[in-house]
């Protein structure tokens, strides 16, 4: 496209004629013919290129949620502790003491595949801006990563780049990356997932929102200058990949964490005054989505002079300025008269500050550039009339329940454990975690797998007798379960997250979700979306953990091949006294007890388990069923026991089943355990399918606790009618003993656990 | 670092802006960690040219005490207040982990005076460029003058990865020739309560404050 400054020499009519859009332009920008016709009709004219660009960005799946909106509306979002649900930059919940936790998860999948370092770095930068835009100081970062098969040629390059990118941004801006999950599956070979989550803290009465207020109020652009990076990134992120997708690299944004840090400090400093009326970060679709969303949320309009936007490059057109996704920028509405005060703060932090327009009451977006009208469109069609589709769907569920005896093997229990800890999906992610600064800010209690959920202390809540409150954060999803049964898979993700939060000693409070799927135009993919949202809704309502923010990432497909459905649940919880936080590692002479499993439990759930994959080389059958009553019961009893200070560790049973969980609890302190078995299994041999299913089955609603005071724990469990099974007392042998059946050296397993990922990455320790 | 200093002194320390070129007389200047100017150039290279560096140099020439931690150490090196250089970690990866530091036999200094020689401190590191390098003649000089203050140390004889960055002779921190300036890569302010897993960092900073203020 010709630049407007070259066009300056021509008159207005010629200029407008050149700018007029055609259907082909719309198609190229990812709009459909129907959508283009709708736009022409709603705005009563043929849009010019800038106007069309704005529509295409706002109508992109990324901004409009047009395929998922109908179903997102069914999610439970309300509870007495919710201050702000979905629809703002981030969700906000009340955590007592006049404090609010502000948090959100967001995907940067497409850009991270094209350019792993910058893609993941800007994913972190973007989610941090979402949080501090609300007036919160970010205190922790988490992430959920999915990569292709470990032996796929690109995987190593992508893991290395994404991990460096996440660390590069988080470490530099000085916010601890405290945990997350990393998994590998061949379905992600062509579409990796990079979901970043940020959690911040604000005073409950000092939350900032994005709705514009007051016609005539100044609109301010602050932060980094606008460049040509990331133009139309939101549209790129709303399409499938093909062989030519690497050509889309210029649509990936470039991160500048130092400017991000300056912007964070400058915004929080300004928010300490009374100058800011509303504020919105420029994320996906940059200046377009920020201006449109602020104006439309306030039922107002906006008039901007694009000549006043600070630009990094010469001769940028109105189209480029509106669609750039340059990072580290914010749009604010200030109280009239406070501009000077605000400018002095941004000057101090060496950031651009420019008054680029004003709020109007026209409900239109009017832009001028080089003295011409660059855009004049009503806001309603952009937001209120944005398409919302009811796409056809079919929820496919696998109902076949596999029996332990269906799985025959010549592997012993020890062999299987060895294979499990050599599986990159289970093995320690220390190689990744050590590249993240997890202890900056000095408030991290448990990070990176030390506990089922990462725990950070809430600075400033210290009391004489306590270190103060703590926040627990986790991200969870088991895509193979979702694939087999989207409803159960959705429920399981929520339940496992809640179990993880509780196992760290915190009460589960609320959810942010990141729904990653393939192409919603396919009936079964749409079924996965609808099914998992249904499951998430069920479990979240039952457990009282509403969804307060989230993000949807569709079209995670390459050449027609879709990823495993991956609805990631980010959950936070709170605890009153952070010194009561629980780690997964048991201590010497602790008794390990399984909550939620009784003496009669003999046959473990093998369908869709890691164990089944080892035996059958595939996942098959129905995933483990979910009983929400049971889930709630184990969570409540665990929190009760912890309140009585009876517990020394806790770890929920998930991937790899009971024995895997036990090993993980024993590794750190070089402990051993003589495991009790149900009476019927004591005479089995190590190949027995029933015994193996007991060891590796992935039945849900179970948590292993460690205690020094078995009597008091038993008393409480009996009184509350909770199923439990006493596994035995930890010893210093470093051996796992299954009666006369098997003795397994934990040192060997620990070695596998620690070396698997470094070896995979070619970085032998 | 502010939390740690406040915990020890009961008062919040004064924060000095990098553009400042006039500061009151101070007992102790701490240059904390972080990523000054994003460290897009060599770490600390831009910060070492900030106006405040001249003020710090004046403070040192008057016999003042300075503690530089992580990026603070990198800035002291780039400002040529301390000798040698800090290169990329040997594995070319950022690394955040707990390390064991052994107190060395060194010249009189306010930082480690209450520790025994050979005493071990558990303090975490978090950096990408902490691989201290000194050419042989400088290394000899540092040894002879007793200016190597802290070394990464093994806990077990067969431990391999105890040195997180591959630094020359496991050096973790060095002193100026008058012993009043300490630059160290590990973060003592991240080991100040038992929830951090230990309080060795607090001991180090506390000793320093007590030695100076009494």
What does this structure look like?
The complex is a heterodimer of chains A (765) and B (214). Chain A is an alpha+beta fold and 765 residues long. Chain A has a 7-stranded mixed sheet with strand order 8-10-7-11-9-12-13. The longest helix of chain A is centred in the N-terminal third of the chain and has 21 residues, at 153-173. The mean pLDDT of chain A is 93. Chain B has helices at 2-9, 52-61, 71-78, 136-144, 200-213; strands at 28-31, 65-69, 85-87, 95-103, 120-127, 131-133, 148-152, 171-175, 181-184. Chain B has a 7-stranded mixed sheet, with helices on both faces. In chain B, strands 3-6 form a two-stranded antiparallel sheet. The model of chain B has no long low-confidence stretch (mean pLDDT 94). Chain B is of the alpha+beta class. Chain B has one domain: Class I glutamine amidotransferase (GATase) domain (Rossmann fold, 3-Layer(aba) Sandwich). In chain B, strand 1 (28-31), helix 2 and strand 2 form a beta-alpha-beta unit. In chain B, helix 1 (2-9) packs across helix 5. At the A-B interface, helix 10 and helix 12 of A face strand 4 of B.
In short:
The complex is a heterodimer of chains A (765) and B (214). Chain A has 765 residues and is an alpha+beta fold.
Task: Provide keyphrases for this structure.
heterodimer, A: 765 residues, alpha+beta, 7-stranded mixed sheet, 27 helices, 35% helix, globular, B: 214 residues, Rossmann fold, two-stranded antiparallel ribbon
């Amino acid at each position: 496209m010709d630049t407007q400054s070259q066009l300056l020499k021509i008159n207005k009519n010629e200029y407008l004629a050149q700018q007029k859009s055609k259907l082909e332009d719309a198609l190229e920008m990812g709009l459909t013919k129907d959508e283009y016709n709708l736009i022409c009709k709603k705005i009563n004219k043929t849009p010019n290129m800038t106007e069309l660009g704005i529509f295409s960005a706002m109508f992109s799946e990324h901004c409009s949620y047009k395929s998922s909106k109908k179903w997102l509306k069914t999610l439970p979002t309300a509870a007495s502790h919710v201050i702000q649900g979905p629809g703002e930059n981030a969700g906000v919940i009340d955590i007592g003491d006049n404090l609010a936790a502000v948090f959100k998860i967001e995907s940067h999948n497409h850009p991270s595949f094209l350019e792993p370092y910058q893609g993941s770095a800007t994913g972190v930068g973007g989610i941090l801006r979402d949080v501090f835009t609300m007036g919160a100081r970010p205190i922790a970062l988490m992430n959920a990563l999915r990569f292709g098969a470990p032996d796929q040629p690109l995987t190593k390059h992508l893991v290395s780049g994404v991990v460096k990118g996440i660390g590069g941004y988080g470490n530099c801006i000085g916010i601890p990356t405290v945990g997350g999950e990393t998994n590998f599956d061949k379905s992600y070979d062509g579409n990796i997932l990079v979901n970043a989550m940020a959690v911040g803290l604000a005073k409950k009465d000092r939350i900032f929102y994005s709705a514009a207020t007051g016609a005539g109020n100044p609109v301010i652009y602050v932060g980094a200058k606008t460049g040509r990076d990331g133009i139309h990134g939101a549209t790129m992120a709303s399409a499938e990949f093909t062989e030519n997708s690497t050509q889309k690299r210029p649509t990936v944004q470039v991160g500048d964490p130092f400017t991000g840090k300056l912007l964070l400090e400058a915004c929080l400093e300004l928010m300490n005054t009374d100058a800011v009326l509303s504020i919105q970060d420029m994320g996906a679709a940059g200046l377009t989505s920020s201006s449109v969303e602020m104006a439309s949320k306030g039922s107002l309009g906006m008039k901007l002079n694009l000549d006043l936007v600070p630009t990094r490059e010469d001769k940028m057109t109105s189209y480029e300025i509106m669609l750039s996704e340059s990072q580290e920028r914010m749009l604010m509405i200030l109280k009239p008269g406070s501009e000077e005060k605000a400018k002095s703060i941004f000057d101090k932090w060496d950031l651009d500050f420019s008054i680029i327009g004003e709020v109007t009451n026209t409900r239109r977006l009017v832009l001028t550039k080089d003295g011409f009208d660059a855009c004049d469109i009503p806001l309603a069609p952009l937001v209120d009339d944005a398409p919302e589709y009811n796409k056809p769907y079919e929820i496919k569920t696998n109902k076949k329940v596999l029996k332990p005896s269906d799985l025959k093997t010549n592997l012993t229990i020890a062999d299987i454990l060895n294979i499990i800890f050599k599986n990159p999906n289970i093995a320690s992610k220390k190689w990744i975690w050590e590249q993240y600064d997890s202890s900056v800010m000095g408030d991290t209690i448990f990070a990176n797998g030390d506990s089922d959920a990462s725990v950070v202390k809430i600075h400033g809540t210290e009391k004489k007798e306590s270190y103060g409150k703590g926040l627990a954060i986790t991200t969870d999803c088991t895509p193979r379960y979702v694939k087999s049964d989207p409803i159960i898979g959705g429920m399981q993700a929520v339940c496992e997250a809640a179990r993880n939060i509780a196992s760290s000693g915190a009460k589960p409070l609320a959810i942010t979700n990141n729904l990653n799927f393939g192409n919603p135009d396919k009936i079964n993919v749409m079924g996965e979306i609808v099914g998992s949202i249904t499951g998430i809704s069920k479990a979240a309502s039952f457990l009282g953990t509403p969804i307060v923010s989230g993000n949807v990432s569709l079209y995670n497909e390459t050449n027609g091949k879709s990823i495993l459905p991956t609805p990631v649940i980010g959950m936070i919880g709170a605890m009153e006294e952070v010194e009561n936080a629980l780690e997964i590692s048991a201590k010497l002479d602790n008794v390990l007890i399984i909550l939620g499993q009784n003496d009669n439990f003999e046959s473990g759930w093998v369908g869709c388990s890691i164990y089944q994959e080892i035996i059958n080389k595939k996942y098959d059958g129905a995933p483990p069923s979910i009983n929400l009553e049971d889930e709630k019961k184990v969570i409540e009893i665990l929190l009760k026991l912890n309140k009585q200070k009876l517990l020394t560790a806790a770890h929920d049973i998930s991937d790899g089943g009971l024995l895997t969980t036990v090993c993980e609890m024993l590794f750190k302190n070089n402990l051993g355990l003589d495991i009790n078995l149900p009476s019927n299994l004591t005479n089995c041999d190590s190949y027995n399918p029933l015994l193996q299913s007991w060891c590796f089955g992935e039945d849900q609603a179970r948590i292993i606790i460690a205690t020094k005071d078995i009597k008091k724990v038993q008393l409480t469990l009996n009184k509350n009618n909770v199923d439990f099974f006493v596994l035995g007392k930890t010893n210093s042998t470093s051996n796992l003993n299954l009666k006369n059946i098997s003795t397994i050296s934990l040192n060997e397993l620990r070695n596998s656990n620690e070396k698997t990922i470094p070896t995979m990455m070619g970085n032998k320790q | 670092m502010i939390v740690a200093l406040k915990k020890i002194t009961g008062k919040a320390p004064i924060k000095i802006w990098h553009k400042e070129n006039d500061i009151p007389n101070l007992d102790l200047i701490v240059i904390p960690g972080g990523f000054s100017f994003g460290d897009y150039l060599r770490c600390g290279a831009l910060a070492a040219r900030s106006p405040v560096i001249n003020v710090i140099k004046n403070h040192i020439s008057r016999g003042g005490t300075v503690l530089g931690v992580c990026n603070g150490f990198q800035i002291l090196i780039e400002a040529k207040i301390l000798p040698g250089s800090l290169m990329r970690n040997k594995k070319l990866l950022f690394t955040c982990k707990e390390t064991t530091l052994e107190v060395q036999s060194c010249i009189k200094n306010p930082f480690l005076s209450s520790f025994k020689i050979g005493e071990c401190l558990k303090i975490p590191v978090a950096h990408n460029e902490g691989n201290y390098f000194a050419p042989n003649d400088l290394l000899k000089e540092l040894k002879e003058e007793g200016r190597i203050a802290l070394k990464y140390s093994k806990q077990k004889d067969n431990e391999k990865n105890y040195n997180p960055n591959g630094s020359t002779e496991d050096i973790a921190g060095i002193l100026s020739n008058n012993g009043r300036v300490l630059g160290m890569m590990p973060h003592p302010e991240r080991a100040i309560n038992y929830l951090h897993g230990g309080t060795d960092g607090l001991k180090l900073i506390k000793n320093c404050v007590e030695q100076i203020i009494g």
